Amino acid sequence: MVDTERFHVSGSELVEKVKQLLHQGNIRRVRLLHEGKTVIEIPLSIGAPAAALGIMVAPLLAAIGAFAALVTECTIEVEKVEKP
Asked: 0.85 cut: is pTM over it?
């Protein structure tokens, strides 16, 4: 079962919030929305080793940081996998 959550954050909090969400481990997909439109979508594979996930996500975090510098507020939409 998939659960979707939304977080409204300021641009300065964006990168830290995304990092925090990625460390939870039960995330399937992260979307960054600005004015209702998807700007960046990060699909994550379930069960990916932490080291491999860190290597894959590092360039995306740099892109998110650049995006955060341009916006004052955005929405993070997270798809979480709930274990039965």
From this structure: no
